Amino acid sequence: MRKVMKFGGTSVGSGEAMSRTADIIMSYDCQRAVVVSAMSGVTNSLLEMMGEGGREVPEYLDWLRQKHHDAARGNISNELMPEYLEQLEHRISGLGHLVHLYRQDEDRVMYQDALASWGERLSSLTLSFILRTRGADSLALTSEEIGIVASGPPGNGSAVLPATESNLRRTLSPLLNEGKVPIITGYYGADLKGRPLTFGRGGSDYSAAVVANGVDADVVEIWTDVDGFMSADPRVVKKARTIAEMDYGEAAELAYFGAKVLHPRTIEPAKRKGVAVLVKNTFNPSGQGTRIHGLDRNSKELLRSVALKTGLSIVKIYSSELVYQPDLVAKILEAISADGTTIYAVSTSLSTLAVVVPTGSVPEACNRLKGFRDQVEAVKVKEDAALICAVGDGMLESCGVSAKIFSAVADVGANVELISEGASDIALNFMVGGSKAVDVVKRLHELYIGD
Ligand code: ASP
Ligand code: MG
């Protein structure tokens, strides 16, 4: 049995949390590689440090030093403490040096990802010394050291899986075979020049799946601060419950639209190698969590979960040219997403294109649409809309699914504003007015998921 265990920011967020995390790691004796996030709050403060007008650099460095000292106190033995403090100081002065370069250089983008990755270098070091104190043969390793290869734009890289796999076979697998417990930095890889490239905020989950893919783990465990995926947001539906088992596809849909349980990109590298993903709660380790794998269930369920995303708008673009100019739709979508705006759903008809974006992005999107003055007759915006994402593997197998779901919508007097079905076999996404959204979710849960 070989597994990759990932612990998020809150799971390493204090001395107490680190101790709990160490207990969990020590409670297993199979082969295990650990991937960690930065202590909670650290990545934010690193990003803040890069901005203007924040505190002075030495203040940030003192704060980081103190935070990690506090986490170490009582968790790292007196024998190991001097070695820990020396290595911590080495890493903190490395950060100081980098900020100095960053502030002096014109080409700041070059340093941004390296700076953002620093929190993971500190947390992994601390946790590995805590584990050594408890008798584990543990060592801290950076993404560069084990060879997680990344490519893509700054702040939004992706792992290059084949290259990473061939590196990890050489660097990481032998350590696991020897019974060592490596603590690896999440959140980033190294580009072809060896420079850090981050995977986007919350990217440590993805890192863990990339490592699991590379060492052919049986399971990647995502240890976080919730019990797993739930049938609905418990703040909306009181009877919402944890889902014991899900298919990769269902989890990917829900992670994208709904709860912040798991970074949506985590699924792909795991799925490619058939590595199961297990979501567990560090603060409730005896809970069963949610197990995500390739499921071929006999008992498919119409609805397994209903996620809700509010704060969205529907931008409707009217153009009689739409069907006659095949590349117009693509160009419009490209313009809308040009500044990184996420498009949550798209729906087209003969002369209308409806695009769902966060309400905050609407003014900019409309601005960029002015470039299409000649082809577009009108642009109308419907604000305060909510996207409901109904997920279940029984969706497209049974007929009459939409009728069932939309009758629940009608029950609460809501209107379906837009439907985007069929892009995925197991999800039906639709929009309703923001004021009715919670009622729709409650009704769907009551009818098709129950207590
Ligand atoms: N520390 C990074 C962040 O805050 C990555 C992660 O936590 O997954 O986004
Ligand atoms: Mg996270």
Overall description:
The protein has 451 residues and is an alpha/beta fold. Helices cover 39% and strands 23% of the residues. The protein has helices at residues 15-26, 42-50, 57-72, 81-104, 109-116, 118-133, 143-146, 161-171, 173-177, 204-214, 248-257, 267-272, 326-336, 362-369, 401-411, 437-448; strands at 2-7, 31-36, 138-141, 150-151, 158-159, 181-185, 188-190, 196-198, 219-224, 245-247, 276-281, 290-293, 305-318, 345-348, 352-358, 378-391, 416-421, 427-433. The strands form 4 sheets. It has an 8-stranded mixed sheet, with helices on both faces. Strand 11 (276-281) and strand 12 form a beta hairpin. Helix 8 (161-171) crosses helix 10 (204-214). The longest helix has 24 residues, at 81-104. The radius of gyration is 24 Å and the shape is globular. The two termini are 36 Å apart. Bound molecules: aspartic acid and magnesium ion (MG). Residues 8, 202, 205 line the site of magnesium ion (MG). The site of magnesium ion has 3 residues, from loops.
Would you summarize the structure shown here?
This protein is α/β, with parallel strands linked by helices and 451 residues long. The chain is built from 16 helices and 18 strands. Bound molecules: aspartic acid and magnesium ion.
